[in-house]
Write a structure and sequence with these properties.
Helix content: 25-40%
Order of helices and strands: EHHEEEHEHEE
Strand order of the largest sheet: 1-2-3-4-5-7-6
Number of strands: 7
Number of helices: 4
Shape: globular
Strand content: 25-35%
Structural class: alpha+beta
Radius of gyration: 17 Å
């Protein structure tokens, strides 16, 4: 029996998320909330809540993206403020979610690559990933592939699905990183 290679994978396209995408985004996120450890959220938010979260992110001038595969929303990613205190204003945190069953098709890589590029166009200088579950090899590998380095593990900081869960922190510089002082710009006033 000869092995026939899989057909060429479909191309992934990344674009800005629109309000009409929120049902698909809520659908993608739901199994992560109910069955996974990548998020510490325990009740799946409705599409209206996801829309409100998207609007808050866009109000900060940060990107909120979706990936399409074969004309369907296959994943989403966004960046948000890392912490509210003013000294953290040049540091942001990323989130990337891929529809169950579609891992291994470069959807997460495509999303995170575009997210980094968009954020580098703004005033931000550091991007953090706070990865739920130290056993989340896929997310750790994705971030490492795109230049993130380990920045520590917080042990047993969450309790979900009947067990204690760690978070892994990873970090990468954006643009000039910490090699120069930030430009006199406020992230809230800058749009990407």
């Amino acid at each position: 029996m000869t092995h026939t290679p899989d057909p060429t994978p479909s191309a992934v396209s990344v674009r800005n998320a629109a309000p009409a995408d929120m049902d698909s985004i809520a659908d993608i996120y739901k199994p992560y909330v109910l069955q996974g450890l990548a998020t510490f959220e325990e009740t799946p938010p409705a599409a209206a809540e996801m829309l409100a979260r998207r609007e808050a992110i866009l109000a900060l001038g940060l990107p909120y993206l979706v990936a399409e595969l074969d004309g369907q929303v296959a994943g989403y990613a966004y960046a948000t403020s890392y912490r509210p205190r003013a000294a953290y204003r040049y540091t942001i945190e990323d989130s990337v979610y891929v529809r169950q069953g579609l891992h291994g098709r470069h959807i997460g890589t495509s999303l995170l690559r575009v997210l980094i590029e968009r954020c580098e166009a703004g005033p931000w200088r550091q991007m953090l990933a706070v990865i739920g579950d130290s056993g989340n090899a896929g997310s750790i590998a994705l971030h490492r592939r795109l230049g993130f380095r380990p920045a520590g593990t917080q042990y047993a900081v969450g309790f979900k699905l009947g067990r204690w869960v760690d978070t892994v922190q990873m970090q990468r510089a954006l643009g000039a990183g910490d090699t120069t002082p930030p430009v006199n710009a406020t992230p809230a006033a800058h749009s990407v």
